[in-house]
Write a structure and sequence with these properties.
- By secondary structure, the chain is mainly alpha-helical.
- Helices cover 65% and strands 6% of the residues.
- The chain has ten helices and six strands; from the N terminus they run ββααααααββααββαα.
- The strands form three sheets. A two-stranded antiparallel sheet has the order 1-2. Strands 3-4 form a two-stranded antiparallel sheet.
- The longest helix is centred in the middle third of the chain and has 26 residues.
- The protein is globular, with a radius of gyration of 22 Å.
- The N and C termini lie far apart (84 Å).
- The C terminus is likely disordered.
Amino acid sequence: MLHTAAPIDRVFIEIGPISIYWYGIIIAFGAILAIYLASKEADRLGLTKDLMLDFVMFAVPIAIIFARIYYVFFEFDQYVNGPWWKVFAIWEGGIAIHGAVIGGVLTAIVFARVRKVSFWQIADIVAPSLILGQAIGRWGNFVNQEAHGGPISQATYESFHQYLPDFIMNQMTINGVMYHPTFLYESVWNILIFVGLLLLRKYNPVRGEVFLTYAITYSIGRFFIEGLRTDSLYMFDIIRTAQFISILTIIVSIVFIIYRRKTVSERYLDAPPKNKKKNKKQIRKRKNKVQHD
């Protein structure tokens, strides 16, 4: 294996005693872009301008907390005998995207009830932005040389050498051994899902189907990619947690799609109920004005 160059420095910049890491910069960029795109789409569909920003203010911190709880729960042996504060040491690594999604979904359910909006509409709006943010966020794992697969064979190395740029080959070579760039596999898969969801919503599917399609397609990719990784969380030392959650998510999402197609009439592009009422009032005012004139 020829690629033995020094890895990318994890630190983006140091300001006195404070170190700002590339991982945080990349995650923040993905989150900001996702929030921007979701806000624009919410505005296009007629939701109030600040709705998505209000939702994000609650969803982001709760998602991070759930991502950490999820990781600690399945890696409890690492923390049971250590200092108690290690449970909160996110800066040392250890968050799980499935935990973040669970936290985000629970937040969306409560938020939708309080604000009297459709949970499924919020979920549909957020889904493409969420998967794009995940695609960008995986490059934080790349810089950290984590979430990679096992060692590749010489034949695979030579094949990669023809297609992958040197900076990826270098970063995925650790102590002279190149590992499967599973971060790249997932990032590319997520971008394909993002494009697919944008196309799907143009066909005005049943409300909720964009989000459920995100859940199914992401879980399919995650199931196979997880099988290559070397840092997986396990349930009862038997099955990889992410693979079990992926299978469960696929089954539940398919059931929801079938059920909603039979019972729900609302479509993705349908205006929110409040806006429909406003539109009817405006139409009545115009009619009254014409009659008066």
